[in-house]
UniProtKB/TrEMBL annotation:
NCBIfam families: apsK (TIGR00455), PRK03846.1 (NF003013), PRK05537.1 (NF004040), sopT (TIGR00339). This is Adenylyl-sulfate kinase. Pfam families: APS_kinase (PF01583), ATP-sulfurylase (PF01747), PUA_2 (PF14306). GO terms for molecular function: adenylylsulfate kinase activity; ATP binding; sulfate adenylyltransferase (ATP) activity. HAMAP family: Adenylyl_sulf_kinase (MF_00065). ATP binds at residues 399-406. It comes from the Bacteria.
Length: 569
């Protein structure tokens, strides 16, 4: 019989006296400011959530994990956990050096003894870990376009926990959860992993899983980094707390996991199982397409629906946690209850609402029936996602110099201001260069910084219910995607490609820039000596060669109306 292991697991924290001494020494060390994902990883390294890891993977461990899902000592571990850094930081760093790892406020969280430094083959990592080197996968996109090019490995000494100011009473370390289960006398615990709000089907699923395993239930949602576009964790936790009283208090616990998900499907399921073992659970619900990221570049699912369950089952004994199969639950109207889809006879009326349909109903302010979700959850979701016509949004123009971006953007701004209802801000490329980015040049690195600054300002405007209109050249696909992800946390994003051909842009060239670029007097000029990567699927594409500005701006308004963002009279 599987019963919980309630003995303490190793943590990487040093004693309070040792931490104080190391903090004094750290003043003279090289420091690395951790990214949000690295902070999540470090926290689970230090508190034992990533046991048996003692720090960031060495190159030998990394190779074993990528190729065979095993550390160099043979232990099962499916996910690379490395400290990725910039070339500049890595340049003078020799193995054998200690570095201070700081949070984004500059607080020292840990000391890392660097044993390994290498440049990984990221395409191989993408193929092996995520199944394809395809940037449609959020983790592959992160790997190529956000993660640093150099990896560091080596053991970590934890000095203090990352600080969380939210839901502090719900955040438990592995050892705190083990102690909690021991105190309650729980010997069998089934964990439910989620990055979404809980609806009635999830409640029925978790009830059934606990009954099937004859276990207590741990609702263990991820509140670190999930998939871009997911509901933020503040809203989700309020939803979980709102429905907690629907569960029997004596047999159910809610605890938050500060994990940075990779959406790696089958490997992620095995990883989640190992992490839950460290937290003291005995059973784990593995979903259909568990931790799948959606569609690849060809429009097909990255992983098969049951690949994660198959891989978990293969390694179940080594993981040390029993798998409970996810049952796809649907509502049977005649019996007014949820039942597993594969157990329902023909002839009954089955009701179901997909995630896409739920988002549409929220966006359009439509009814969400009580058979689908709890009124308390719907209320929280409506607070977070008001109808689109009441949300802030961003219109992001991109195109070559001289294509007509700024002119159409100005006309759009005036038309939106005439309509009223929301404040409108125009973030034109030239104006932003003058006020926000005057120190930047035109290298790829500096262009990316400039566009991300524009994206950040637009995201703040969108978050606060305004309309941001951006009109930079924005020549690179990855940077435009980063801006979209930044903004779509808070509202809609409409990409408008002004697709006027370079010949027409050059013919219009009032500033003589194309002429200077042709003569080699302006280096790195988009469309001449520097590439422009056309958007593959913008919300709208407009060629201003043969239409006037008013017509182009009206096309944008019609697109915004179709998206539900404005109402045209």
């Amino acid at each position: 019989m599987t019963v919980a292991n309630q003995t303490a697991i190793p943590e990487l924290y040093v004693s309070a006296d040792a931490a104080a001494a190391l903090k004094d020494e750290a003043g003279a060390m090289l420091s690395w400011d951790l990214t949000p994902r690295q902070i999540c990883d470090l926290e689970l390294l230090m508190n034992g959530g990533f046991n048996p890891l003692k720090g960031f993977l060495t190159e030998k461990d990394y190779d074993g994990v990528v190729n065979e899902m095993r550390l160099a000592d043979g232990s099962l571990w499916p996910m690379p956990i490395n400290l990725d850094v910039s070339e500049k930081f890595a340049e003078g760093l020799e193995p054998g050096t200690d570095i201070a790892l700081r949070d984004q406020e500059g607080v020292i969280l840990a000391i890392m003894s660097v044993t390994d430094k290498w440049v990984p083959n990221k395409s191989l990592e993408a193929e092996k870990v995520f199944g394809a080197d395809d940037v449609a996968h959020p983790a592959v996109n992160y790997l190529h376009n956000s993660a640093g090019p150099v990896y560091l490995g080596g053991p970590v000494k934890g000095l203090q926990k990352p600080m969380h100011y939210d839901f502090r009473g719900r955040r438990d370390t592995p050892n705190e959860l083990r102690a909690h289960f021991k105190k309650l006398g729980w010997r069998k615990i089934v964990a439910f992993q989620t990055r979404n709000p809980l609806h009635r089907a999830h409640q029925e699923l978790t009830f059934r899983a606990a009954r099937e395993a004859q276990a207590n239930l741990l609702i263990h949602p991820v509140v670190g980094m999930t998939k871009p576009g997911d509901v933020d964790h503040f809203t989700r936790v309020r939803c979980y707390e709102a429905v907690l009283d629907k569960y029997p208090a004596a047999t159910t616990s809610l605890s938050l996991l500060n994990l940075a998900m990779r959406m790696a499907g089958p490997r992620e399921a095995v990883w989640h199982g190992l992490i839950r073992r460290n937290h003291g659970v005995t059973h784990f619900i593995v979903g259909r397409d568990h931790a799948g990221p959606g569609k690849n570049s060809a429009g097909e699912d990255f992983y098969g629906p049951y690949e994660a369950q198959e891989l978990f089952r293969k390694y179940e004994d080594e993981i040390g946690v029993k798998m409970v199969d996810f049952k796809h639950m649907v509502y049977v109207q005649e019996r007014a209850q949820y039942e597993p889809a594969d157990e329902i006879e023909e002839g009954v009326t089955v009701l179901n609402i997909s995630g896409t349909e739920l988002r549409r109903r929220l966006r359009e302010g439509l009814d969400i029936p009580e058979w689908f979700s709890f009124p308390e959850v719907v209320r929280e979701l409506r607070r977070n996602s008001p109808p689109r016509a009441n949300q802030g949004f961003t219109v992001f123009f991109t195109g070559l110099s001289g294509s007509g971006k700024s002119t159409v953007a100005n006309a759009l701004m005036v038309k939106l201001m005439e309509m009223g209802g929301r404040p409108v801000t125009l973030l034109d490329g030239d104006v932003v260069r003058k006020h926000l980015s005057s120190e930047l040049g035109f290298s790829k690195e500096h262009r990316d910084i400039n566009i991300k600054r524009i994206g950040y300002v637009a995201s703040e405007i969108t978050k606060n219910g305004g309309i941001a209109i951006c009109a930079p050249i924005a020549p690179y696909t990855a940077t435009r995607r980063a801006v979209r992800e930044m903004i779509e946390q808070y509202g809609a994003f409409a990409e408008v490609h002004i697709s006027t051909p370079v010949e027409e842009c050059e013919r219009r060239d009032r500033k003589g820039l194309y002429k200077l670029a042709r003569e080699g007097k302006i280096k790195e000029f988009t469309g001449i000596s520097d590439p422009y990567e056309e958007p593959a699927k913008p919300e709208l594409r407009v060629d201003t060669t043969s239409i006037d500005v008013d017509n182009a701006a009206h096309q944008v308004l019609l697109t915004l109306e179709n998206m539900g963002l404005i109402g045209l009279k």
